[in-house]
Amino acid sequence: MIAMDDLRKQFTTGRGRKARSVVAVDGLTLHAQDGAITGLLGPNGAGKTTSLRMLVGLVTPDSGTIRVDGVDLRTDPQGVRARLGVLSDARGLYPRLTARENIVYHGRLHGVADDVAQARCEHLARLLEMQPLLDRRTDGFSQGERMKTALARALVHDPDNIVLDEPTNGLDVVATRALREALRVLRDETGKCIVFSTHIMQEVQRLCDRVVVVAHGRHVADGTVQSLCEQAGCTDFEDAFVKLAFDAEGHAQ
Amino acid sequence: MSHWQAMWTVFVKELKDALRDRRTLMAVFVSSIAMGPLMLVALSTLVGKFEKRAEAREIVAIGLDAAPTLRNYIERQTFTIKRAPADWEAQLKDSKLGDPVVIVPADFEDALAHGQAPRVQLVYSSANQRAQGGVAVIGRLLQGFDQEQASLRLVARGVAPGVMSVSRIDEHDIADTAARAAQMTGVVPIFVLMAVLYGSVNAAMDTTAGERERGSLEPLLATPASRGAIVVGKWGAAFALGLLIAVLSCMSFLPAQSLLRSESLSAMFRFGWAEAAWFITVLAPFAAALSALMMAVAIRCKTVKEAQANNVVLTMAVSLTPMIGLFNQEGESPWNLWVPPLAQSALMNRVLKNVPISPLDFAPGVVVCSAVTALALVFVTRQLTRRGAQ
């Protein structure tokens, strides 16, 4: 389970008179349950990526608390990272290593024994339909092949909590469907807690059990797709999102 | 996962990754391993030419036909007389003529017979390295003629020639063969120091700025491995590669000795297993400090290109600092041993000169390099903690 409460983060760029402050996250609260897919939905620049970076400990929040399975990020950041499988915005692979070596390397860094990491790698390759890729160097991989390798790398240590930052970016329809199916399997068969940031309505509608709408760094609404539509008084989810997110942005400005 | 396990995992991965970069590795191998021996062979060829010239006992002259006495003396000294070409002055300036030119005036013999001092010109160009080498030899030859003639005149007047000498000069060169050779081979340590740089620079940049540029740093930092363990693992790989190239570079001098063309240089330049072991011992702390420093410079950069530009200062420092020792006429100063890579260069030169190295000479370099390594690694770790993958 992931619990982020009242997170705030402000970035300062430049120095002296030219210094400018930007509020990236302004009191965001998100609770994601086990066995469910929670969508973090918001327009570009809403603070989704910053929030997920704070969750992993790559960005230190100015205030607020983050707990993963009850472990506090401030007191035990390594314990939190060990419980998370993260597919971040940056999905760089090592081009001179094979897909298998990329995946197993991360498994080893998560403390997984070599033989177990190899077995997990095979299992994930079957799940993500990427067996032919395993022993190829990742240099020259297509966007979809990179995506699958990065996802397998994030899941190699079989984490209880999975965080995916815009995972379908750059994927074609077939790859997107395969990813959706894989996430459903992870939720239904293994009861994982999955947090998934996106700005694509279709994905949220098809996949998420619960949606947290963020705008301008703030939590503006949450609930199921159905309840959000009701909350906004719209029948179409896209209309509901625009109303909830952009009305909130207008108020914030 | 323990720190040691994480360190080892990162170290093995980085080493494997770097060793698979065949093109870069080949360029490093060729530049670091072949350059030193090639330079040594080129140096020996140059020395060999000087030696051959000295053995040839040739004199290039104009107007010697009009000076039979001088000609007789020169021939008695087993020198071969060569007539200077018509454009000797231009050839001397362009370094096409490899000997100084002796100009004997037409009235030389007449002036000599009348007890006057005929003026002989010894013409050379100080910009012509080849001809410069023969100036002292020909100068001594002409002085010998002068002394012989003076002695004959004194004897003819019933004066013992010894009257002209109130003292005798006996020259003693106290430099041993190794020290003499070190004058010629003083550039060898600079090549080996550069080999360390070339060996570790790519790994140091690829594991820091390269990782940031390709977007693999963020996933790496999302693992529970501690920042310190990640940094030490990466540094270990850069250090190991620097040291590997240094070892190969030192070893390459062993077979290179057989290619030396100068007999005296090959007799003087003794670079055996013991010398190679000393070189590696001296270079190891430097390789550690240099790879850590390069990582510290590169960790703030967003791309490898930016890191390369920032590391230029470090590259220049490594290549230019040992020059202080090379051009210093006053000999080695105690502070030299506290400044890497001047310290390493000085110690390697001592090895080449066969001067014993005490632990007290070795310690300052090790202390400074260890401190630099530790500080640089702490800096890199803090940067990763503070800036994350940004």
Going by CATH, the architecture of the largest domain in chain A would be 3-Layer(aba) Sandwich
Structural class of chain B: mainly alpha
Largest protein-protein interface: A-B, 30 and 27 residues
Kindly report the average pLDDT value of chain B. 86
Description:
The complex is a heterodimer of chains A (253) and B (390). Helices cover 40% and strands 26% of the residues of chain A. Chain A is built from nine helices and ten strands. In chain A, the strands form two sheets. In chain A, strands 6-7-8-3-9-10 form a six-stranded mixed beta sheet, with helices on both faces. Chain A has a four-stranded antiparallel beta sheet with strand order 2-1-4-5. In chain A, strand 7, helix 6 and strand 8 form a beta-alpha-beta unit. In chain A, helix 3 packs parallel to helix 5 and helix 8 crosses helix 9. Chain A is globular. The mean pLDDT of chain A is 90. In chain B, helix 10 packs antiparallel against helix 12. Chain B is built from 15 helices and four strands. Helix content of chain B is 69%, strand content 4%. With 390 residues, chain B is mostly helical. The interface between A and B is medium-sized, with 30 and 27 residues.
Give the SSE layout.
The complex is a heterodimer of chains A (253) and B (390).
Chain A: E1 2-13, E2 20-32, E3 36-41, H1 48-56, E4 63-68, E5 71-72, H2 77-82, E6 84-87, H3 99-109, H4 114-127, H5 143-155, E7 161-165, H6 173-190, E8 193-198, H7 201-207, E9 210-215, E10 218-223, H8 225-232, H9 237-252
Chain B: H1 3-19, H2 22-56, E1 58-62, H3 68-76, E2 80-83, H4 88-93, E3 101-103, H5 108-113, E4 121-123, H6 129-156, H7 177-185, H8 188-213, H9 217-221, H10 227-256, H11 263-268, H12 273-298, H13 304-327, H14 342-353, H15 359-387
Parallel strand pairs in B: 1-2, 1-3
Antiparallel strand pairs in B: 3-4
Task: Give keywords.
heterodimer; A: 253 residues; alpha/beta; Rossmann fold; 2 domains; four-stranded antiparallel beta sheet; 9 helices; 10 strands; globular; B: 390 residues; abc type-2 transporter like fold; four-stranded mixed beta sheet
